[in-house]
């Protein structure tokens, strides 16, 4: 199920900046071609081949919205039986090209663009939510919208800056919090996939979690987490991306509960998180100027 009108926006009129977390962009990164085009290592390799090395406008946009890894395909438990089946006598057998991750594991970290451009979008979907743009204009102000500066956001992918956990402790009270579900699916009764955002706002900062959670029954559990932190008054958004994944076989050896009690729980991704193996971890930051 796609929650088409669900979205979370981070905006900064001062920097003409928008950070959008929405279901359609998240699902777009389930496409293999999109993953290939926006994979950070591919973009860096392309940049190094130019003389002199440089990112042009299109590459800068891709760099800002790049992903750190491409999730490997997951096969259902029964796939081994299908592969062993003799199909040599089937005359009209067709092989279907796979273009999309059927498990909806999305490495999407958010869509970064200029605020002025995001308000000019004229797709059919956006025309249906003009009230959403009107709300943004109320927050930003019509005068400011007409005087927005050029957007100059950059990705510092070499940054090792970590999210300052001390600012997220009990001594910094949460003023507002919430959760936005972007999409979820039961994978043809073969598991469960869910993409959602949790956020909290304190007096001096905000912190959010974008999670792509995938469970393929009796095969594998995967979590792709992007955490974003911003301290008010700074021009930097610190991001932390982590990929955690384990097979059911591994979880069974570790005596982790994978019963229906867990798999039917609304908190299953939180319950299993600490038991999954770390596969990939990166830090970066978005710098606004």
UniProtKB/TrEMBL annotation:
One of its GO terms (biological process) is TOR signaling. Pfam families: TIP41. It comes from the Eukaryota. One of its GO terms (cellular component) is cytosol. Belongs to the TIP41 family. This is Tip41-like protein. The lineage of its organism: Eukaryota, Sar, Alveolata, Ciliophora, Intramacronucleata. The gene is Contig8831.g9431.
């Amino acid at each position: 199920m796609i929650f088409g009108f669900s979205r979370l926006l981070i905006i900064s009129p001062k920097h003409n900046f928008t950070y959008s977390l929405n279901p359609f962009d998240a699902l777009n990164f389930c496409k293999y071609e999109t993953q290939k085009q926006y994979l950070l290592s591919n973009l860096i390799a392309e940049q190094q081949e130019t003389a002199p090395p440089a990112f042009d406008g299109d590459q800068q946009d891709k760099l800002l919205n790049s992903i750190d890894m491409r999730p490997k395909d997951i096969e259902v438990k029964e796939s081994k039986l299908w592969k062993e089946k003799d199909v040599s006598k089937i005359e009209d057998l067709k092989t279907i090209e796979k273009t999309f991750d059927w498990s909806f594991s999305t490495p999407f970290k958010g869509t970064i663009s200029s605020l002025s451009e995001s308000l000019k979008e004229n797709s059919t979907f956006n025309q249906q939510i003009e009230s959403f743009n009107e709300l943004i204009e109320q927050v930003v102000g019509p005068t400011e919208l007409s005087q927005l500066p050029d957007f100059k956001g950059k990705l510092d992918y070499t940054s090792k800056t970590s999210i300052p956990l001390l600012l997220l402790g009990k001594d910094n009270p949460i003023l507002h919090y919430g959760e936005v579900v972007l999409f979820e699916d039961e994978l043809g009764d073969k598991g469960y996939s869910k993409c959602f955002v949790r956020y909290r706002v304190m007096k001096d900062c905000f912190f959010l979690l974008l999670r792509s959670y995938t469970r393929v029954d009796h095969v594998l559990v995967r979590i792709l987490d992007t955490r974003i932190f911003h301290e008010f008054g700074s021009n930097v958004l610190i991001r932390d991306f982590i990929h955690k994944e384990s097979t059911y076989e591994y979880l069974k050896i570790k005596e982790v509960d994978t019963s229906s009690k867990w798999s039917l729980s609304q908190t299953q991704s939180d319950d299993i998180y600490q038991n999954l193996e770390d596969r990939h971890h990166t830090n970066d930051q978005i710098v606004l100027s």
